[in-house]
Amino acid sequence: FSDECSIEELIDESFKNQTLNSLRDPFEEQTVTTPSPNTPIRPKIISKNDRQASISFVTPSTSRTQSISSVSSTQSAVSIINPSSISTTSVIVKPILITNVPSNRIYHNGRMHITSLPSQSIAAVHKVIVPRGCEKKKVHHAIYAITESNTRDELQYKSRDLLDGLMKKYIGLTHKKRESDMQYCRSIIARIPFRNWARKMSSDTGILRTPDSAFINLLDYPFKPNYIDLSNPGCIGNGKTKLRLHYLDEGNKNSKETVLLLHGEPTWSYLYRHFIPSLKQYRVIAFDFIGFGKSDKPINKTDYTYQRHVNWTKEAIEYLNLNNITLFCQDWGTLIGLQLVGTNGIGNRFARVIAANGWLPTGDGPITDGFLRWQKFALKQTKMDVGWIIKRSVIREMKPKEIAAYNAPFPNEKYQAGALIFPQLVPTTPDNPSSPYNRDAWKNLQLFHRPFLTLFSDSDPVTAGAEKLLQMSIPGANGQAHAMITQAGHFLQEEKPHEIVEHLIKFINDNPLPLDSKP
Q1: What is the CATH number of the domain that holds 327?
Q2: Tell me, what's the pLDDT at 109?
Q3: DSSP string, 320-341
Q4: What is the dihedral of CA 83, 11, 194, 110, to 10 degrees?
Q5: Which of 134, 183, 218, 459 is the most buried (most CB within 10 A)?
Q6: Which pLDDT tens digit goes with each residue over 393-420?
Q7: What CA dihedral angle connects 279, 410, 315 and 349, to 10 degrees?
Q8: Full residue range of the structural domain in which residue 149 is found
């Protein structure tokens, strides 16, 4: 795409040369009656029967209905039209794949602006009719886009979901009529024969990026996003695209102390939203692992390995040049964090460690029944209800907006490859590819004399008992004020954040810098 192009310029020559009668794709001639350029309009479904559905726009000032298109059940129109820039004439408009762009930059003076196109963020847009001067909110709601789709079935599936959302939130039909109209519209979309040109314009990088719009107005998450471009091991997508890792950088940037917060499966930095304000005297860093949160998400499960996660996290720490780190790690954050603490060349960056509901397994010892049940459950899933998993893993009643925030990074199952494969990467047998790395890390952890604290919860069947093994195995754990957080499940950060932060601050104060240079 060029930086600025008209609709006609996006229609390829081969399509222009075809006659309308020869087309079997759902394109048809559109006769557009143009309203006043400055008149706001809103979509409304005005008729429906077994053969036809009309989508019209009503101008509020005159309440005059202007028919935009007639959709046949056997030949469904899929188009992008800007009424303010097209005169009353017959034009053929092709379904167009565009990348996500800020909604206030989509149309201007009858031309489509496409800027800063991330190749991994392709969207097919259906029946988008946006007038010049339309306010940003209406543009946002008028567009229902299907992101990152490569096949006909995926496009249809996402079309139906997004059409449902559009009709529920924007058109405002009564419940009974809305349901019947949605079912009819689904049947129309199901007949859209997306062809090879749609697949060709899909991203070939094999990497998805959750749209920023998914993270708007999250409950208790006002933090500014930051990003690092990480190296690509070469077999993810085309091997040329950098992987973007998201992180939070809050608190006192001039502090000598850095608190590093590592989340687990299937959460993201949202898990630490209640920690950060209370730690403002320190510099606070919270990563989203690749595949989670606002970080990039390779679409293939084979793109994720334990060691890649370790290397990506190490690269981020070194890029930010973090030192005097107090590490707080939980779940997979512990698997990654403890291997890094035990890794030569980076271990000296860690001044203190707090392990919470986590362990560094080698596959040589027993695994809890709770984890094996979780691993077996995850293996059978093709789509993960992340919010439901978090809700089931805590004792307190979670708010619907909190559950929605945990689902936000995953618009659909294609974004969940990392979350789906994570449980299978844990070394549960001695021959696991990561077992040798963890054995080497344990050799150094058994010589780790810097302060080491365990904060486990009393109602977590997945990691029960691991705190005792950590306390016995790591010299730095001797004499520390280890604590059991009561009435808390696996995600204790959701249950007792303020209590945990009190332990964390006390741990730092009881073990001030400078610490022994020996790890």
Answers
A1: 3.40.50.1820
A2: 28
A3: HT--SEEEEEETHHHHHHHHHH
A4: -20
A5: 134
A6: 999 999 999 999 999 999 999 999 999 9
A7: 30
A8: 4-200
- Whether 246 sits among the annotated catalytic residues: the reply is no
**Domains in the chain: how many in total?**
2
**Residue 428: CB atoms within 10 Å:** 18
Exactly one of 490, 498, 510, 516 is catalytic; which is it? 490
Q: Is 113 among the residues known to form the active site?
A: no
Nearest-angstrom CA–CA distance, 62 and 381:
53
Q: Would you say residue 420 lies in a domain?
A: yes
- Whether residues 236 and 190 share a domain: the answer is no
Please identify which of the residues 181, 303, 460, 482 carries the catalytic annotation. 460
In a domain, 206, yes or no: no
- Would you call 108 a catalytic residue per the annotation? no
Q: How far apart are CA 113 and CA 106, in angstroms?
A: 5
As given in the structure block, the two tokens for residue 267 are 């959460």
Dist. CA 177–CA 433, nearest whole Å: 56
Verify that 300 and 341 share a domain, yes or no.
yes
- Residue 239's pLDDT band, with cuts at 50, 70 and 90, is low
Give the C-alpha separation, 55 to 52, whole Å.
10
Determine the Cα–Cα distance for residues 315 and 472; give it in Å rounded to an integer: 30
Query: Is residue 209 domain-resident?
Result: no
> Tens digit of pLDDT for each residue in 345-361?
788 999 999 999 999 99
**Residue at 214 is within a domain:** no
- Catalytic entry in 288, 331, 482, 503: 331
Q: Which two tokens stand for residue 221?
A: 């998450």
pLDDT of 234 reads 66
Q: Which of 216, 385, 223, 203 is nearest to 297 (CA)?
A: 203
Does 176 share its domain with 315? no
Q: What are the residues facing 145 on neighbouring strands?
A: 125
